[in-house]
Design a protein that fits this description.
The complex is a heterodimer of chains A (about 120) and B (about 110). Chain A contains no helices and 11 strands. With about 120 residues, chain A is mainly beta. In chain A, strands 2, 4, 5, 6, 9, 10 and 11 form a 7-stranded mixed β-sheet that branches. Chain A is globular, with a radius of gyration of 13 Å. The termini of chain A are far apart. In chain B, about 0% of the residues lie in helices and about 55% in strands. In chain B, strand 9 and strand 10 form a beta hairpin. The N and C termini of chain B lie far apart (about 35 Å). At the A-B interface, strand 4, strand 5 and strand 9 of A face strand 5 and strand 10 of B.
Chain lengths: ~120, ~110
Amino acid sequence: GAGVSQSPRYKVAKRGQDVALRCDPISGHVSLFWYQQALGQGPEFLTYFQNEAQLDKSGLPSDRFFAERPEGSVSTLKIQRTQQEDSAVYLCASSQRGAATGNEQFFGPGTRLTVL
Amino acid sequence: RKEVEQDPGPFNVPEGATVAFNCTYSNSASQSFFWYRQDCRKEPKLLMSVYSSGNEDGRFTAQLNRASQYISLLIRDSKLSDSATYLCVVNPPNQGGKLIFGQGTELSVKP
């Protein structure tokens, strides 16, 4: 079956531009997570949705970062006024159940963002 | 101190070797632990969960020591296809399932 998909796969932005990254989770998955992975590092948590509710946004690095999941399926991560330090791979993951530890998360291929 | 710490490597081993990766975590209340595998420029994929009693899946054995807050992964009879980055992952309690990743340990298996 279809896994998690993300688009675009690659994005080059000039410093100061706004970008929007899309995630299509596995159909029916309740939980959706966004992670940021810098080169040579493990992924770092950004935010978490259970259906359409954003239950945790503690990992968003600044108020330039905004995420939404208005209908409880597709999610968009928006970064305003991009900075060079925003360059990273942005990974989306979904899991079948909500608000529980131990559920396997399935990751998408990521969006590689480069800010010039 | 990072919440999850791993030796970044790289570990360069010949085919057939046994290799062990270690990881420590800081939140003693953590309940769920995993090893994920990430190939170059690919997404992380679950390799195995780690249970208190230890668990084995073919050539892979995972161990958890709660008293020392220490997790290990042992790979026996290494294959070329095992070359990847191995991520130690912890699910902290009461935080909705978010994962805390270590930096990852790079493994390169040579012929």
